[in-house]
Amino acid sequence: MSSVQPSTRPKASQKAPGRRNENNRIYANPLPIIFADEPEHPSVWHKALGLLLGISLNRVLNPHCEGVFDATTRSVWVTDMKHAMTLWQRGFFGKGDLSRSEPSWLARQVNARKQARTGLTSEEVTAKRRAERKQFKLDRARAMAAAAAEAEAAFKEEGRVISTVYAADGTRIIPSAATWKPSQPPQEPVRTPSPAESDDEDDKDVPIENVEHLQLTLSEAFFLLWALDCLSVTHPETGNALSLAQIWCAFQNAHRRFDNPFLVNYVAYHHYRSLGWVVKNGIKFCVDYLLYKRGPVFSHAEFAIVLCPVYEDPADQESSPFNLQNCSRRSPGRALTLILSYVTIPARSRVSDAVLSSPACFNLLLHTGGHSQTVHPSSYARLD
């Protein structure tokens, strides 16, 4: 596969050292599985195994998380928040079903109950910044209108031309984004609480039940249970653990078509994950995947991936052809390198049902060298 170099665009401002160190500590492990250090005093038997057979003395710590398959949303739900935070903090797998990314619903509810000014979640910080930007635009518009009216009056009455940007003493009339400070928020009117609200005052100390769960895509779930063996999926009704064959059939049946999107998406997902990238859903930018170096809490995405199925037999094509204009959505100040990854769909005439009846069909694509011809980033474009 051809190598892809990261874009040379200017990097965003670095986070504060304290925040950066905290993120490095929380998200230190790139995968849920951890390789622990060798014991301080290994036994003679362990030393012999290491010297004679080359066996590593590192211990593998597997979290063994559990999830529930949901056919309606075509996803796997991790309801145990301990498992959910393990998967999120060790590789950024999944997203909170009530959050934008990290499962933070409970933290937001606690902050809302306490009406805290500090300890805001990422979503609350984003909402606060958006409100401040909106207020800045309103203040700037008022200042521009007042400066224009003053300049027009001075020209009509005295014939003078005055600046609409700077005052006579050199101070800036129209605020700039670099120097503008948000004004004091308006005071909320004092009102008498209703009887229902008075009753709620007594429930402030009642713990909030966390109703959020981590939602894994089919590709993420299959990577965790097949490639890493750190996730088990249970049946939503019986609660029994599903076997690999049952999970394989259930994930494939989520899309009943020959060019199964699950197979196409997983081939690309497995490939880029195996290269060390953090792969996240790219629906925000109308692409299939976004690639992060370490994760979304450290930096913006480096690449946007669009999967382009290539059919050996054009008669097998069931989906609409790829349109590059669908990737035209942009975010101000954001630059992404677009990679078109071509995934070859073999002809239906030479692929039997027995070939697709087991995950072993991935071995040909992922482990034998043919993968470089199946997913191939061949052309780049700039989304800026």
What does this 3D model show about the protein?
The protein contains 11 helices and 12 strands. It is of the alpha+beta class and 384 residues long. The strands form 3 sheets. A 5-stranded mixed beta sheet has the order 5-6-4-3-7, covered by helices on one side. A 5-stranded mixed beta sheet has the order 8-9-10-11-12. The protein has a two-stranded antiparallel sheet with strand order 1-2. Helix 7 packs antiparallel against helix 8 and helix 7 packs across helix 9. The N terminus and C terminus are likely disordered.
Write the layout of secondary structure elements.
Elements: H1 17-26, E1 34-36, H2 44-53, E2 59-61, E3 65-70, E4 75-78, H3 81-89, E5 95-96, H4 105-114, H5 122-158, H6 195-201, E6 214-217, H7 218-227, E7 231-234, H8 244-253, H9 261-274, E8 278-281, E9 289-292, E10 303-311, E11 336-345, H10 361-366, H11 371-374, E12 376-383
Parallel strand pairs: 3-7, 10-11
Antiparallel strand pairs: 1-2, 3-4, 4-6, 5-6, 8-9, 9-10, 11-12
Condensed summary:
By secondary structure, the protein is an alpha+beta fold.
Radius of gyration: 28 Å
Into which percent range does the helicity of residues fall? 25-40%
Proportion in β-strands: 15-25%
Low-confidence stretches: 1-13, 186-192, 366-384
Terminal CA distance:
26 Å
Q: How do the SSEs run, as a string of H and E?
A: HEHEEEHEHHHEHEHHEEEEHHE
